[in-house]
Specification:
The protein is mainly α. It folds into 3 domains: 131 residues, no CATH class; 190 residues, Arp2/3 complex 21 kDa subunit ARPC3; 217 residues, Hypothetical protein af1432, CATH 1.10.3210. The chain has 30 helices and 6 strands. It has a two-stranded antiparallel ribbon. A two-stranded antiparallel ribbon has the order 2-5. It has a two-stranded antiparallel sheet with strand order 3-4. Helix 24 packs antiparallel against helix 25. The radius of gyration is 51 Å and the shape is elongated.
Length: 704
Amino acid sequence: MVQSKKSKSIKKKQRAPVASLLVAVITFAAVFVMLALAVTPDRYDIEVGQPAPNTIKATKDVEDKITTDRLRAEAAARVKSIYVSDPAVTQQVTEQLTEALKALRQVSALLTSDSTTELTATQLESANAQLSGIVLGMDELKALGSASEEELSAISDDALEVSVAFMDKLQESEIPDTLSAIRQMLIERGHSEALTDAVMLAVSGSLRANYSYDEAATEAQRQAEMDKIAPVTRVKGEVIVSDGELVTEAQFAMLDALGIVKTSTMDVWLYVGLALLSLMLIVAVGLYLNMYEPAIYAQPKKLIMIALICGIDILCCILSREINTYVMPVTLGVLMLALLIGRRVALYINIPLSVVASMLASASGSFINMATYTVVISSLVAGTVALRVLKTRQTRLTVLLAGAVAGATNVLVTFAVGLISSANVHESLHMALFSGLGGLLAAALCIALMPAFEVIFNAVTSTRLVELCNPNQPLMRRLLLEAPGTYHHSIIVANLAEAAAGEIGANPLLARVGAYYHDIGKIMRPMYFTENQLGDNPHDRTDPRVSTAIITAHPKEGAQLLKENRIPEEIRHIVLTHHGDTPVIYFYNKSLSENPDTNIDDFRYPGPKPSTKEEAVVMLADSVEAAARTVQNPDRERIRALIDKLVRQKIDDGQLDDCDITFADISRIIDAFVTVLSGAFHERIEYPNVEIPKKAHESEEKPA
């Protein structure tokens, strides 16, 4: 039996992560689809040069690439070519020209020393062989041969001087004109054309540009000017093309980039971004539940509730934003999660819900604008305030009050952000009033949806618990009629459990209802339990083991009875755990007297042990109430001593090992029990047996 229970428990733990993953995948798909449908723009049949069918606005920030490229090209064209001067070239040209002119003078000297009057081709060839890079013609050779040394020296000096003068920022394209100018200046200085042409051969062979085009610097300057031109963009919500306006190529390119032209591909990156954001938010929630709320993480039913609540909240935001961006009921998710799951979970999940709502709120501008900023801040603050209101009581009136307070918070936050970002007080107040309606709408939707969740998920809420407290509930009615002793015992246990639960921060109403039903299984065999017996005790005629089996069966039978009547699981678990695996001492002792080898494990309840504070409180209250009946002449000290003893026995027996309860909690529980039981067993005066005389006027009216 024990092995079977362990194997079932292991299988259940193994299935929990799989179920959690499945819920997460389905939730991701649902959230992604809703957001994708909410942000997917309409697609239009548009062509360049044709009138636009509607006024079309940007669905997100988009760059006007054609206009941007045109402006950058114009900026680049305005940049002049950059040239750089190289002083080393001037020095090289001077040295090379000096050597070339020196070589010409040497050739002239050789020709002058030759007595031959007629110059021959052999002499021309010999002269050219002595010149490096200069090819003389016969005319130039004759001019050199007939020129005096003084003429050659003068023209050489003039050629060098004029050439160096023209080397100031000389470009390659200017060299032909420069050579012509040098020749002209030499002739103007009185030199013969023939001798000038000979010298110009040396000049043309030596002259080089010293002022060249710097392509790298020019391109860098052009790029710098292009970078100064910021991209031309249309922000989200800005009109790209008006109704009837002829569509330009630039406008068409922007519409095509946004994916709202029928012939264009869809904006894939938009959906990639939505998918990543949805995934990260769901992973964040899953990690939080896994680390800080493992009990909830292990229950697929609660995970489904969380997912469904978030989905409904997002859907309501999508629908309501068509009325006004600020009327979105983001606080709906917070209220429902607080009532159905817990306030701590609601506080955390309010963060991703606020982020999603801020995405939906952006009707104009970029992702981070006044609308998104206002919605995310107001949702976070309003959700926190609403949870504080729900802390005390969780009735429908309290939910409505929480919605009203959340709405008032929305008004203040929205108005404050409006004043910070805009000087238009009237517009800020208008937005704030719509934001206030969002809180009231959230409360109204919560009240409307809660009954459906209570029925579908058989969830524990304050309203449901109050209904189960009604004595006219079928099972409570049966308990009263079929096991009246157990019924009255349960009433006192409920008083004890409620008082103790309130002291340690547990749910007092859940503890009370759990105590009401903790012994409901006894209606299957009421006469086998002492409080319902009227003298005859069937256990006197029954084997101790059989008696133990009957007694220890009532938690399981009670839980099954509650399940058949669709009582919430939390209450069923209180019924299952209110005895833990404690031994039935009376029948163990009876069997021990008959058989010394009796094993106490055969006389224990099947368990499980309590795992929540409410379950622990009901277990302790049940033990204390039953034992308190046996106290002779009860007073506060005797009651406390008894309670201390019973609680210590439970702790020593390990019944509270699985429960997150502290010694400080135990101390508060004992104080609460003492207070309640001291009132129940207060000392009463003995009334004297005195005959009460009739009233005076009644005796006078009696006939004689």
